[in-house]
Amino acid sequence: MALPSSVRLVEVGPRDGLQNEQAFVPTHLKLAFIKRLVEAGCANIEAASFVSPRWVPQMADHREIMQGVERRPGVVYSALTPNLKGLEAAIECDVDEVAVFGAASEAFSHKNINCSIAESLERFEQVVEHARQAGLRVRGYISCVLGCPYEGEIAPLQVARVAKALYQMGCYEVSLGDTIGTGTPSKAKHMLAAVAAQVPINNLAAHCHDTYGQALANLYAMLEEGLSVIDSSVAGLGGCPYAKGASGNVASEDVVYMLEGLGIESGIDLNALARTGDWITKVINVPNRSRAGSALMVAGG
Ligand SMILES: CC(C)(COP(=O)([O-])OP(=O)([O-])OC[C@H]1O[C@@H](n2cnc3c(N)ncnc32)[C@H](O)[C@@H]1OP(=O)([O-])[O-])[C@@H](O)C(=O)NCCC(=O)NCCSC(=O)C[C@@](C)(O)CC(=O)[O-]
User: Which ligand 1 atom is the nearest neighbour of the CA of 115?
Assistant: First the structure.
């Protein structure tokens, strides 16, 4: 299949990128981070997570973030909402879009959201219904689509079953998470084919972590299959608190660099993105895991 002419990037740095940081990142820095991402051209920003602060302390300032973020027309500021409590709080804070997050692995589902896959889907149905009544679009995430830290291999048909359930309940897009980055290109293609047999490919997104250095290769393989929405995190920030050893998301700068080389539009200013990655990693004192971003800064930013 021909590669897409444009790709929509969902920048998950402020949420997935920061959620695992042990030292609390002050709210004003999170807000400045989001502003810089928008100035670099990011039009879909996952800004916060309305989860329990006991489970993910870094996201405890979700209300301050969603209420404090400087809105720019045309930019979608979204948040994770695992249940009705999270959804109601997010609506009060004028969120643009929400996301529910499940898993293709029973063990991961229990560790991450404290319930089985079936229970999570029942819970999400209520969230989706209420969100849609409030006029909000809902995204659905599936973790562990290419491997689980507790169960190992995950069958593509199991991923497809969960994706179909999320799509049928009204999620407009299902994001397929390689949570621990164990996927390889042929596995990614097989998994995507199984899912795309149940959910139109235009309603799917890829969310790759780069733990084994396979993320760009996996994304390229999925672009070849017609996928055109990619989640990424500037500077490769991130990791899931409930997936030990999982490193960051694929770096947004690396994705944009690859897309530019392929002649695929993303609407992002790569140099501005690289400067944002450089800035956030310096202010929170973590390594910049973007190869392209680091190279661009050496070359003069
Ligand atoms: C889902 C729950 C809440 C269930 O947690 P639970 O303990 O089963 O929930 P509960 O209903 O029994 O409530 C327990 C306490 O949490 C509170 N609570 C309950 N809900 C909320 C809420 N929404 N916001 C704030 N507080 C909440 C509730 O009020 C209560 O407080 P208490 O009375 O004990 O003081 C919990 O497991 C949780 O918060 N999990 C979040 C885990 C998480 O955020 N993981 C990271 C995001 S997923 C991810 O990173 C993967 C992804 C998406 O990026 C894709 C990939 O890479 O794979």
Answer: 8
